Amino acid sequence: MNGISKSTGLSNPNSVSRLHSRSAQRYMWAYLFILPQFAFFLVFTVYPILMSYVYSFYDWSGIGPLNKFVFLDNFKAVLADHAFWNAFKNNMIYILLQTSLVLPLTLIMAILLNISFLKGRTLYRTIYFLPVITTASIVGAVMKFIFGNDNALFNNFLLALGIIREPVAWLSKPITAMGVLIIVGVWKIFGIIMVYWLAGLQTIPADNYEAAKIDGAGAWQTLRFITLPLLAPVGAVILLLTVVNGMHVFDLVKTLTEGGPFFGTDMVDLYIYRYAFGSGGFPQLGYASAAGVVFGVAIFTITLVLGWFVKLSNDSGKSRVIGH
User: Fold this and answer.
1) Is residue 21 part of a domain?
2) Closest CA to 58 of 284, 279, 275
3) Looking at the chain, which terminus has fewer C-beta neighbours within 10 angstroms, N or C?
4) 188 and 303 assigned to the same domain
């Protein structure tokens, strides 16, 4: 051992000191590269979040000093405002319907694109993923052109096929406007959710499928008893990510429907924006901050419940693997 230590030079205190010095220099460079991003994170994420809690206790327009402390008055006003609960209801409807559509559809597409002998799989994946990298505000502006008036592209397409006899004002009625918003939202996130499912499918050992094939299991039995049970933990995480994504659709709603008609597609993010920047009135940043805090607590609560569901799914998935 002494010979080995001497040959490697580790017994020499100077060598150990130089080793520690090199290690410290290497970590120092890593921290220097991280520092700008960390500084931006503190300034543009942590600080605004903390200050929003402070502003929520003041009647403040965003201009001048904080000198009118109102304690919980802003929160009481938010909780008593019918417009806030209307926006919150719309958010929940959007999340529920979008999630109900996007999860099964993306799972089916992921299963199809995971077939090894399917030609052009990479091309199909790229096509479905393209909307994900497109800015949501641009998507909203383009979709408004497609659905926005009687002479819009979608109406002309349906008229040419003979599906409708006269143009439909898709964005002029709350129900149809919400339907368009949900369909566009599904199309926008379809690719990324599909990629999540594909990642989950590729973690399932091929041995399971080979054993099922030897046992004479068909495609439906393989899907039901192998693929879906082993995908359950991944599916729970995808559900969580989809729900959290559906809570923040400000840019899409702002450019596509602007919360209309008659606040039928109004969302909490848009509600907060109107009060914070005084659209049609004087800015009320303190009130908007209180609304943001209330919505943040709601999101946190929903996330906790879904996180508990994810944990249960993970435990269930582990028990299935052990049992298998």
Assistant:
1) yes
2) 284
3) N
4) yes
Q: Are residues 133 and 44 in the same domain?
A: no
Helix (H, G, I), strand (E, B) or coil at 187: helix
Is pLDDT at 8 greater than 70 in this prediction? Answer: no
Kindly give, in sequence order, each residue whose CB lies less than 8 Å from that of residue 218, ignoring residues fewer than 6 positions away. none
Do 160 and 101 fall into the same domain?
yes
Same domain as 216, residue 151: yes
Q: What is the pLDDT of residue 14?
A: 61
pLDDT of residue 121: 82
d(CA 113, CA 122) in angstroms, rounded, equals 9
Q: What average pLDDT does the segment 275-281 reach?
A: 76
Number of domains in the chain: 2
Of 18, 76, 31, 4, which is closest to residue 286 (Cα–Cα)? Answer: 76
Over residues 31-40, mean pLDDT: 90
Least trusted range by pLDDT, from 4-18, 186-200, 290-304: 4-18
Distance CA 210, CA 28 (A): 50
Query: Which has the closest alpha carbon to 169: 185, 180, 182?
Result: 180
In the structure encoding, which two tokens stand for residue 48, read together? 């605004």
CB-CB contact of 309 with 241 (8 Å): no
Could you tell me if residue 93 is left (phi over 0), alpha (psi between -120 and 50 degrees) or otherwise beta? alpha
Q: Is 229 exposed, middle or buried (0-12, 13-18, 19+ CB in 10 A)?
A: middle
How far is Cα of residue 123 from the mean position of the Cα atoms in its chain? 24
Output b/e per residue, 279-314; b: 16+ Cβ within 10 A. Answer: eeeebbbbbbbbbbbbbeeebeebeeebeeebeebe
Q: What are phi and psi of 18, to 5 degrees?
A: -65, -35
Residue 222 has pLDDT above 50, yes or no: yes
At 321, the pLDDT band (50, 70, 90 cuts) reads very low
* Partners of 58 in the β-ladder: 69
